[in-house]
């Protein structure tokens, strides 16, 4: 082999080596590019997965919210049905009350004249009855007349007071009571103790216990009693005032139909 040939071979070899080196450099660059591309892909994939996860979580939240909304809707529908039934019942009650209110005027038209008749009857009854606690009873009737003229008193309250007066009058027929007052002895008036046993016996006694009288409802006059009634009347007065224990005592009574 000539020297030229050896040089040519060496040059060839160097060229081949340089080509190999260049090829290796190019391969290294391609690998780096590939790795960078893969890294970008992984990075993008991670971002995409994060977005997917976020969307999934949002979807789950929306599903849960939807389910809650559906459940609340069912509850609200049930509650609305309940409220509607209550409203319907209230409407029915209002209609019933309105009907009653509309009839109040008609009731008043019948009750008011009835109350005036009841008061007049009560006043007449007191004037004919045994005159025990007469001033208080007449005052009660006067108050009823005043109440009937008072526009601030409701019809129901007026009617209650009239019935109450009747109940009080009925009670006078059963109570055993004593009180002090003025007795009219036909032009002569004096202070005396009164005692009555219901409407059966109504007697009075002077404060010095020396005179006793019996009320005669037929003649509408007081009749003086004998001395034998002084102590029994005194005892009756004291028993009515709870100053003596209850016991038998003798009181004068007019027989039924006696003249």
UniProtKB/TrEMBL annotation:
Keywords: Signal
InterPro entries for this protein: UCP028069
The keyword Signal belongs to this UniProt entry's keyword annotation: yes
Pfam families cross-referenced by the UniProt entry: DUF3450 (PF11932)
Signal peptide region: 1-28
Protein name stated in the entry: DUF3450 domain-containing protein
Lineage: Bacteria, Pseudomonadati, Pseudomonadota, Gammaproteobacteria, Alteromonadales
